[in-house]
Write a structure and sequence with these properties.
Elements: E1 6-10, E2 17-25, E3 30-33, E4 38-45, E5 47-52, E6 55-60, E7 63-67, E8 73-77, E9 83-90, H1 100-105, E10 108-110, H2 112-124, H3 131-148, H4 160-171, H5 180-187, H6 191-202, H7 206-223, H8 228-234, H9 240-251, H10 255-259
Amino acid sequence: MPGGPQIRAWRPPLDGVAEVLHARFGEHAYPMHAHDTWTVLLVDDGAVRYDLDRHERGAFGELVTVLPPRVPHNGTAARPGGFRKRVLYLEPHLLPARLIGAAVGTPAIGDAPLHRLISSVHRLIRTPGDEPAAEAKLALAVERLRARLGDQPEMGPPGREAARALRDLLEENIVPGLPLTAAAARLHFDPAYLVRSFSREFGMSPHQYVISRRVDLARRLILAGEPMRSVAVGAGFYDQPHLVRHFKRILGVSPGRFAQSPS
């Protein structure tokens, strides 16, 4: 491929994600190697041929490929033109070790909702301030991935009590924010269960609830005459562009236009 491989790798501020990799490869062939993390791979263009546990496998199209920790594998383009991929390297504690055998046996999963969830994680973690939304999508993706590997959690249907407890906890932390994993630990519920329960009870995700309350707070700060440059931080947004994007999405006007409206 002209110009060689194109790689972007980083560690996001997202609990359980050791690394994110977005890459495009042409001629490069990975030799046999292993990771200490779970590798969750999406191939957006082209196809990858790889060996896992002495079996030849392939990753392409809408498949979600899951490679378990410490199991060697390689990888190369399956056809001319190379391939483009996105990878989440998940810390071992997100998926129990007992699922390693299932992943070795069936690393390729055809599941469109799971593919969409993982794609959403990749999209959201690229935008500063959207990490809480990425965390919720990741929790749902991990829950679905566990189920596809034969380890369905026994949590029952979404619960109103869990949803309202989470809402109260979020209300206590609107400005500073509270990671989903921290909320789950305090409430003694699984993160994915909390997301499903909250969404069922209130018709929106926990992150959407927090954003809407921050916009509500920003309105009050603007009407109180707070300088615009300090409204974003005072209302809990990452920065002013983050505030503007969500303020306009919810109210239909920018914070500046809102501030200039007739009293």
